[in-house]
Amino acid sequence: MKNSLLAKDFMAASLVTFTPDMDIMEAIRLLTEKRISGAPVVDPLGNLVGMLSEKDCLKVALDAGYHDEWGGRVDEYMHPKAETIDAETSILDVARYFIEGNYRRYPVMQENRLVGQISRKDVLKALLTQI
Asked: Contact 75/84 with Cβ under 8 angstroms?
């Protein structure tokens, strides 16, 4: 595989995003409806402020089971510090990050702005382009 393949060439640029003040049940509905396992959380200016994953959303069910309360806001459940990938990162480096880490997706940044998201599946698609 060539080192010239970059994250920006295989990332998803059209994203589902959430806001910190969004109702968590609406976020869960969108995750299931769009069949995605997580999405970036952005502030009103479009700055990345966290990530919300299916795993984070499972905490909603636990809270409901223990406290009999469904709901809350996205910022109560999201990971506030998101690990990111630069758009110019080699797809080989992205593959290594996935192997060494526990994430299923990374937000892709360019000049400190969210420009996309790359998943394990996107890296596998990059591999198929080399066959």
From this structure: no
